[in-house]
Amino acid sequence: MSAGKSPKPVIGWREWIALPELCSSPIKAKIDTGARTSALHAFGLEINEEEGVTLATFEVHPDQRSSRAAEKVTCPVQSFRRVRSSNGKVELRPVIVTDARLGDTGWPIEITLTSRDQMGFRILLGRAAVRKRFLVNPGRSYLLSSPSDQRTDQ
Description:
Blueprint: E1 10-12, E2 14-17, E3 27-32, E4 38-41, E5 43-50, E6 53-60, E7 71-76, E8 79-84, E9 90-102, E10 105-114, E11 123-126, H1 127-130, E12 135-137
């Protein structure tokens, strides 16, 4: 490591992440360095065009096994991307850019919107989101976060 450079924070294979522009509560995230792209479970996803801008409207349900505390959001779609899911199926997904916060680190993140009903986590953070920001310890969990640390409505 070069002099003057602080070490990267270490995160576990799952962490609580804040997406303050989308949701006031933290979301339990799976860190997946095998996936390039991050994905958010978007309930009731609708894509519309308004004054020449493509918009995604959807609900975010931060609590894993609950539809309570749902927050409806509308945000601009940056692009569309073909993503191969873990079952091998290729899907064209809308991509949004939003702010993320994990521990003391905040940064803009690209997230694809999709149905993750069958998945154990509402958000998956791919390697593009964590690259050059964090080191990942796959044997540990919640090294930088707890649900209360990441609340955005305090």
